[in-house]
Amino acid sequence: MGNAPPRCTRLALRASYSSGVALSFSIPLHEFLHVVLIHSPMVATAFASTTSSNTLPNHIVSSCVRQPLQVAASREREMDSISREFGNWFEENKISGLDGYGNRADYVAESDLRKYWSSQRIRTIWSKEVTKQLPIPVDSIKQDYLRIFSTLVYIARQGRPSLVYLKDFNKRNIHDNNVLPHFEQGLSPIFPRTPEGINVSETFKKTYFRFNPVVFGSGLHRKELNPHCILPMTFKEKLSGDSVVIKKYEPHAAAGIEASEKVIVVKEYPQYELDRNFENEANAYISLRNTAGGVVSKYFLKYHGSFIQNQRGYILLEYANEGSLLDFFRQKRPPYTREEVHNLWRNLFELLLGLSILHDHDPTITTKQLRGVHQDLKPANIFVFREKNKEGYEYKFKIGDFGLTSFEFFDKNSNKSPDNKGGTMYSPPELTHCHEDTRYISDGITEEADMWSFACVLFECAVWSICGEEGRDEFWELRCQEISKHPSHVNQGYGASFHDGFQRITAVDHMLDVILERRRVFDNFTKRICMILLDQVLVPRTKTRSRAKELYPLLNDALNAPRSLENSPIERLPDCSSFPPPVRALEHPASQVDPDGIELYFTSDADKVHKSLRNRFSKLLGGEPKSLVDLVTDRGKKVGEDICHMELSLSTILEKVKRNLSSRKTSIYILTDAMWDDPMESYSSKCCGVDNPIRSLVEEMRKKNIMRTHVSLQFIRFGDNEVSKRRLKYLDDDLGKELQFDIVDCRNHSSSVWNMLLGGVIAAIDAIDDDSMQNNNIRSRSATLQELG
């Protein structure tokens, strides 16, 4: 087979520093090669082994191999193990936030770092990597260098003792609170400009953000953040916006926001908005805070900071859990009890205190004062909150969106700010121009502009509180129709404004008449409130408007004024001096039919029956007998809450009728203004559910084969409210046709008593329309007078 080639063995040697020099040799079996590699500051010695032995002779090992190599390698392994241990802890405790590009970025909170880095752990890790004593006191590391220290440990690798650079951070006074500005210079004073130093520097800069999430608050004001800065929050949803985008986020504990605020809003501005709207809004919140301190959060959205990152501006604000006032109008039902209406106005009037802070005008101060003008007050910029611990119709309102707000220093001779061209619908007459070509010419703006806008919002709220969203739409159409007569005004975008450029339009006064006609019987607020708004604020441009601090007590006095008798539904009934009330007129003929007397129910207490004591038992009971008129009059003196849930009341009464259908015939007379309130219905609904108990009664009568004339319902109407007429007309005409079983008739309170008595039974009388008949009588009398004349 011939002689085999000499067998060789391979020896690999790697220097202990990161330069990583490796030598490899092929050595014949019968030879030893003694290799000496000089690599300062240590000497590495390698030997080849023979085929007869896998290890070197002991005397050679002991004489040639230097112990420092083993110690250094052991220390590197320990440091690498510690770094891995810290890395594992990071993975177990990391939280996912967002960087400036919107990407997921992991971090650990500072509170967790402080728990991890005990004094003993800091000393232990330093002694294992760096043989010298700590150059910084442990307490100083925990207070000033904790994030830098964590980063250096995290990036340490075998052959890269990065923790040694901590002494250079300390030497140059670069600590956690001021390290970020040095990132732009590459941290050259710390890390050498060698390939190894540059590598460590870049790794440090990328990693440091994992231990330094952004903390929100007023201290974060218009700061420019590195794109790699991590925001401790989670994206939830986009709320609105095209150029300025509004998004909802869930802040983490590391953000520094109160735990009660589960979500916040972030307004995201494009680069071209940074110098105007972004700067205006961020500065407005700081100016308000400087003016009034923490109290501003009662009237304005809480400000959680602002910053610029990746060429976009961000403002962090309190989240309104009920949206804007515009959303409130569109989605919520109007208040339907006296207490709810009172609460709505009371909470809205609180915003005048906020406007007083914003305008901050004190005529007694002669030096310059910093005052603001919002310039864009409208329902979309007023925000609504529902507090969890509050029940009922309790909402809190706050002002927001200061993108067009101006803050200027004024003295007693000057009080005008630049006109930042806010929205047009709620803007005052003095900001309009006679021609669209002059719309960019401005004489400035004062706080009176805000007062006009806010008064328009309050008036619109009055319309909504009575007429609902349909009424608000109706009011908008009325304004558009009137403004359409002024083409220049329309061309400038004022098509639905509250003025014609000089004074308020007549549509406002007309709508006041409408809502006063439609208001509920207990409503003694609206008229007084609206008259104050029209007389004190919505005045021609030549007159002075009331300031916020002047208007607040006026409106509150109107809200809390004692109730007048004119608002009591009983007091509104016709007086006996003009004509007999239906109660008095019906009492005598009805008593002849029913010797036991008429049963009287009040809708506020439908379970309780009241009887006239003018019967054969009155003498046995003793005392003066009481008529139904007396009972009604007494009840009127005790009127409290005037809300009328007619469906519930009528249902209670008709259930009693259903239980006794087989007995004698029954006639029910319902005296009402038909201004019923139902929490689920708007003012324009058919009849607020009053038809439901009637349908149920008809169904029961049909089951028992009882004649239609066995039960009759006679509604007797007071007042001429158009909504009331529509409701009663539906019950009188349409419901009977739907059921093909008509037991309902409706009469005006001035109608013939016999029509009231028989209209629900005799179809011919039921067919008579009181209103048409009254109009015909008026026309007849008018024609007769003309003939006589």
TrEMBL record:
Q: What CDD domains does its record include? A: PKc
| Family annotation (InterPro entries) | Kinase-like_dom_sf, Prot_kinase_dom
A Gene Ontology molecular function term of the record: ATP binding
Q: Which domain of life is it from?
A: Eukaryota
- Mark the transmembrane ranges: none
Locate the Protein kinase domain: which residues?
Answer: 205-555
Under what name is this protein listed? Putative phosphoglucomutase
